[in-house]
């Protein structure tokens, strides 16, 4: 699923600096030579050019309703970077990534820290039963330099392979029934926090206030909320599919949208309600 294709870069001059395949915990992906890996996590992969004038983003979420609008998904993910004057073109049909059935594409422009960016964003969709997985790939650069990237950078954003069943939160969504197994509870505890340090590396030279916005940026882009662990373990990032979560001493997590539901009723488990974490 989401396969890279080496032949995509075979044309002369399409990527003057060359490229390499990087193997992360959740994804394998293509990195142009000299580019930095800003984020390599469960929900997203972000790359930045050496001079910080161009970037690629791949971000996805599972467990979305099948009628969730692709344009809304792309708009929310782009807006999570906190640009202003974000403008998107009308959607057009596009060739989906390998493993996806449907894709839509938009041209867009936005300002970030006073600089005009131009780019292209694509929403790739996989449907399964009554839910779907949406994956946005995005390539963007300074508007004045976009012509140098338009022919090849969008392909870089799409050259990615999901190698871990937990990518995009797929396993977590499948496991959230009446009770989540202890194994899945462990996986939730292992959800990686987004790296403030690496985001600062990209944004520090442009605006110091980005440091204070990283926590909200992380939650919005990953479509997750952070919850405290009542048994003294590290905080847990969980999908926004449910509004209330409970945890027992075995590390199992139970999610619900019913505020009055209590998994302790009729159960011998010691369930304790989890609270939202705010920095």
The number of helical runs is 7
- Annotation, overall tally of beta strands: 16
What percent of residues are in strands? Answer: 35-45%
Uncertain segments of ≥5 residues (pLDDT<50)?
A: 1-14, 172-185
Under the CATH scheme, the architecture of one domain is 3-Layer(aba) Sandwich
Rg over CA atoms, rounded to whole Å, is 20 Å
Question: Per the principal axes of the C-alpha atoms, what is the gross shape?
Answer: elongated
What's the rounded overall pLDDT mean?
A: 79
Distance between the termini: 36 Å
The CATH topology of one domain: Protein Transport Mog1p, Chain A
CATH first level of one domain:
Alpha Beta
CATH superfamily of one domain: Mog1/PsbP, alpha/beta/alpha sandwich
Care to describe what's here?
By secondary structure, this protein is of the alpha+beta class. The chain has a domain at 6-170: 3-Layer(aba) Sandwich (Protein Transport Mog1p, Chain A), CATH 3.40.1000.10. It is 20% helix and 35% strand. It contains 7 helices and 16 strands. Strands 3, 4, 5, 6, 7, 8, 9 and 10 form an 8-stranded antiparallel beta sheet that branches. Strands 1-2-11 form a 3-stranded antiparallel beta sheet. A 3-stranded antiparallel beta sheet has the order 15-14-16. The radius of gyration is 20 Å and the shape is elongated. It starts with 18 loop residues before the first strand and ends in a 6-residue tail after the last strand. The model is unreliable at 1-14 and 172-185 (pLDDT under 50).
